[in-house]
Design brief:
The complex is a heterodimer of chains A (320) and B (270).
Chain A lengths: L9 H10 L12 H26 L8 H26 L5 H10 L16 H18 L8 H29 L3 H20 L11 H6 L7 H19 L9 E3 L4 E3 L5 H11 L3 H14 L1 H23 L1
Antiparallel strand pairs in A: 1-2
Helix pairs in contact in A: 2-3, 3-6, 5-6, 5-7, 5-9
Chain B lengths: L24 H20 L8 H29 L5 H6 L10 H4 L5 H23 L4 H29 L3 H14 L3 H5 L3 H8 L6 H18 L22 H9 L1 H5 L6
Helix pairs in contact in B: 1-2, 2-6, 5-6, 5-7, 5-10, 6-7
Classes of the chains: A mainly alpha (320), B mainly alpha (270).
Chain lengths: 320, 270
């Protein structure tokens, strides 16, 4: 007996569109899990921009020249802007900014763990731009082609600005490395602290990354964590050499056969510990966000109350 | 670039006041620079801590505008002085008693209401001053004023809107804005009270008539306060001093932070 040809299910139709690289738009049907994964990922990304303002904001008032102060302030302001685009992109999936912020403040939603490390010297403004933004760009450039339209479009804008930030960070490092012995030492000390946490930004190793396979299938993600981490090392080591800095990894070595660098094992205990909330600044960062939100409540209420009063007055004026 | 400072020389701050510059405009341009820088610094302290993301962006935006304006003034002041000092030397290597900003702009951020009141009182004056400087005889100052005026018009609109929202918002916002006014109103008059230097420069036609500025600023304030349903404070007490180098205790801490890197690592390039 012949098997009747079944009409494709919505899931099959959806996957067929993904496979054909057709962008998914807000009004299109999508599996619940796809929607949830995206809300999780985009809001996490938005929260990272928001929390990411804090470690760099920490040096705006102490920037060593007016030019650097201006560049740094503009950069942190860009991050606030990225947060806005990303919250808007997530809202197209049916959530609200209030809900996302509530999840951030309760600790339910995560943000990039890198921001739980403290910024202790001016050179950290170099390393955050050069390494952290460098890693973010590698993560984010493929997202410009991610399957969900609003996310992909937001990422095109974000990536343009991020690459600008990365050049600025590199320039801070270069200035330090071309400066006095004290400055070069400051640069090296900062690299020593940021190198490994930056490698952790790509997430757990592929065999320990539960979401990667499904995300690749849905083309939300286009490279695995380990692929991106390798790319990052291969890109950054020559830059560190150019700066005359030493990457703090004794196992780092060029592998001629692989045409890539071999490198040491990331300290996954530290990674999971920071993810779980035990980094140097986890408590402080979240507290700062919660405090800003709570202390801003009366401002938001006043704006709303005034808008309502104004609307009511205008309605009376129109009726008269 | 030739720098006066090297690590082995005493800091400029050890000298009570900079040597008199031949150009009388120098101390006035420096005063404008200090004013914009100190307010920009205060506003930048909000970065990442604003009451809502959109306002975080607005505060940073105003801070950036004022910082840009301050840099233009410092660069011009350095040129007027003609002694090889740079914008950074002027900003980072002068002590509190050498700073010439009015007291209002160095006052701490407080809550959002304090920041708004401080900003509004400054913006109203700043806007009117720039209109005059733009039409003034010094072409360099006029050019800086022309560029800054566009920004200042936006700042004034933003802070006026917030005065109205907070004044005519909730009982809490009104109580907070009234409290901020009680704290900050005393510093408003200094903006339009001419110092001996400003009077001298006025007779040379380089600085506008502050009485006229004061009248225009007062008219605008009255208009906005009416919208905000706020009474214009009648408090007669005025606290001047900043433009003469007599500051509140707040400025020292602000400068300690602002100048930290340049003071700790003198003479380096960043």
């Amino acid at each position: 007996m012949e098997t009747p040809t079944l009409a494709p299910t919505p899931e099959e139709q959806f996957q067929a569109r993904i496979d054909a690289d057709v962008r998914i738009e807000p009004k299109d049907w999508m599996p619940d899990a796809y929607r949830k994964t995206l809300i999780r990922q985009i809001s996490q990304h938005a929260h990272s921009e928001l929390v990411g303002m804090l470690p760099e904001g920490n040096w705006i008032t102490r920037a060593p020249s007016l030019r650097r102060k201006s560049i740094l302030l503009a950069k942190v302001q860009d991050e606030a802007g990225h947060g806005l685009y990303l919250y808007s992109a997530a809202e197209t999936l049916g959530t609200t900014r209030d809900q996302m912020l509530a999840d951030l403040h309760s600790g339910k939603a995560k943000y990039s763990s890198i921001f739980n490390y403290p910024t202790l010297s001016w050179a950290d403004m170099g390393c955050v731009g050069w390494l952290v933004d460098g890693a973010a760009i590698l993560n984010q450039v493929p997202l410009c082609r991610t399957s969900y339209g609003p996310y992909a479009r937001a990422m095109v804008r974000v990536c343009k600005e991020e690459s600008f930030h990365q050049r600025q960070g590199f320039e801070v490092m270069q200035t330090l490395c071309e400066g006095s012995a004290v400055q070069k030492e400051m640069a090296q000390e900062s690299l020593n602290r940021w190198w490994w946490p930056t490698l952790m930004m790509f997430g757990p190793a592929d065999d320990a990354s539960p979401n990667t396979e499904q995300s690749m299938k849905w083309r939300i993600k286009r490279f695995t964590n380990d692929e991106l981490r390798q790319k990052f090392v291969d890109m950054m080591v020559p830059q560190a050499e150019f700066l005359g800095l030493t990457v703090p990894d004794e196992k780092l070595k060029w592998n001629e056969a692989r045409q890539a660098y071999d490198f040491g094992e990331v300290n996954w205990d530290e990674f999971w510990s920071v993810v779980k909330g035990n980094g140097m600044c986890n408590h402080e960062r979240l507290q700062a966000r919660v405090q800003a939100h709570e202390e801003g409540a009366w401002v938001r209420e006043a704006a709303l109350a005034h808008a309502e009063k104004r609307q009511a007055r205008e309605a009376v004026a129109v009726a008269a | 670039m030739l720098r006066l400072m090297t690590p082995t020389q005493p800091e400029v701050s050890a000298v009570p006041t900079p040597p008199p510059a031949s150009n009388p405009l120098f101390p006035f341009v420096l005063q404008l620079a200090d004013t914009s820088l100190i307010l920009a610094h205060r506003l930048s302290e909000w970065c990442g801590h604003g009451p809502v993301l959109e306002q975080d962006l607005a505060l940073a935006n105003i801070a950036l505008d004022l910082l840009g304006e301050a840099r233009s003034y410092y660069q011009y002041a350095a040129e007027l002085e003609g002694q090889g000092r740079t914008e950074d030397d002027l900003a980072y290597l002068r002590s509190a008693v050498e700073y010439r900003n009015p007291l209002l702009v160095e006052q701490p951020n407080g809550d959002f209401a304090h920041t708004i009141v401080r900003q509004f009182l400054f913006d109203v004056f700043h806007y009117e001053l720039l209109i005059e400087l733009k039409a003034g005889p010094d072409t360099q100052l006029a050019a800086i004023a022309e560029k800054s005026l566009k920004e200042a018009a936006y700042h004034r609109k933003w802070s006026a809107e917030w005065m109205i929202r907070l004044g005519d918002g909730t009982p809490e916002s009104r109580q907070r804005i009234e409290k901020a006014l009680r704290t900050l109103w005393r510093y408003a008059a200094e903006l339009t009270s001419p110092t001996p230097l400003e009077l001298d420069l006025h007779t040379l036609g380089l600085v506008p008539d502050y009485a006229e500025l004061q009248a225009r600023a007062a008219a605008y304030i009255t208009h906005v306060f009416a919208e905000a349903t706020l009474p214009v404070p009648t408090e007669a007490f005025r606290q001047p001093g900043g433009k003469l180098g007599r500051h509140s205790e707040h400025l020292g801490y602000l400068l300690a932070e602002l100048q930290y890197m340049q003071r700790t690592y003198p003479g380096l390039t960043w």
